[in-house]
């Protein structure tokens, strides 16, 4: 059953409101990383954040609202795709970021992914965040085309990015393998070779 949609919080609150939002979202991240979605409660977040629970209820309404705001806040950060001068270098750097975020214990990235399976609100926010990240990373493919690294300007950027990054999620999340420092480059190289062969060219 879908959860009721909480109203979207203000994206750039100032003064005391900004401080309270920062305290609460920091508390949500800590609670998620330590105990996962199952142990996340308004009361626990309020206590950790040092604010009254009525403040949390009034602004975020429920756990789903808290999750949405944490995920949306991730999209507000000034993140930029890598720019190393080559497609292989860019994809390798991107994979290293991903591996680090998944391998750290406890991992907030993993906790948020898990939470998205329990909350429709979180799932929708996660989808928006991923769509935004793919759109940002399309520039990696655009630059590669401009440098002549790829045979066609009609390369499907999202398909290439998925091919480069998905093996990391498979190994670390599904197989629970130990992080391999060489894996980010190996996976990136496999995707680049496939792209050079035209595997992601769309007609």
How would you name the CATH homologous superfamily of the largest domain? Tetracycline Repressor, domain 2
Helix content: 55-70%
Number of helices: 9
Radius of gyration: 19 Å
Q: Write down the overall geometry.
A: elongated
SSE topology:
Blueprint: H1 15-35, H2 42-49, H3 53-60, H4 63-76, H5 87-103, H6 108-116, H7 120-147, H8 157-174, H9 183-196
Helix pairs in contact: 1-2, 1-6, 2-3, 4-7, 5-8, 5-9, 6-7, 7-8, 8-9
Summary tags:
transcription regulation; Arc Repressor Mutant, subunit A; Tetracycline Repressor, domain 2; mainly alpha; 67% helix; transcription cis-regulatory region binding; TetR_C; disordered N terminus; 2 domains; HTH-type_TetR-like_transc_reg
Question: In a few lines, what is going on in this structure?
Answer:
The chain is mainly α and 203 residues long.
What does this protein structure show overall?
With 203 residues, this protein is an all-alpha fold. It folds into 2 domains: 15-75, Arc Repressor Mutant, subunit A; 79-196, Tetracycline Repressor, domain 2, CATH 1.10.357.10. Helix content is 67%, strand content 0%. The protein is built from 9 helices and no strands. It has helices at residues 15-35, 42-49, 53-60, 63-76, 87-103, 108-116, 120-147, 157-174, 183-196. The protein starts with 14 loop residues before the first helix and ends in a 7-residue tail after the last helix. Mean pLDDT is 91; it is low at 1-13.
């Amino acid at each position: 059953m879908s959860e009721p949609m909480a109203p979207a919080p203000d994206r750039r609150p100032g003064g005391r409101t900004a401080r309270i939002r920062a305290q609460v979202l920091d508390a949500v991240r800590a609670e998620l990383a330590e105990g996962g979605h199952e142990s996340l409660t308004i009361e626990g977040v309020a206590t950790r954040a040092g604010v009254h629970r009525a403040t949390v209820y009034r602004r975020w309404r429920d756990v789903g609202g808290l999750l949405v705001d944490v995920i949306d806040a991730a999209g507000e950060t000034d993140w930029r795709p890598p720019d190393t001068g080559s497609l292989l270098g860019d994809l390798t750097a991107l994979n290293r970021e991903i591996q680090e975020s998944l391998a750290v214990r406890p991992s907030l990235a993993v906790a948020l992914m898990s939470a998205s399976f329990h909350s429709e609100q979180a799932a929708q926010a996660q989808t928006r965040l991923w769509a935004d990240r793919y759109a940002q990373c399309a520039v990696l493919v655009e630059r590669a085309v401009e440098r002549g690294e790829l045979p066609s300007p009609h390369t499907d950027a999202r398909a290439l990015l998925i091919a480069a990054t998905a093996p990391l999620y498979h190994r670390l999340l599904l197989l629970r393998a130990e992080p391999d420092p060489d894996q980010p480059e190996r996976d990136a190289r496999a995707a680049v070779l496939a792209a050079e062969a035209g595997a992601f060219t769309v007609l």
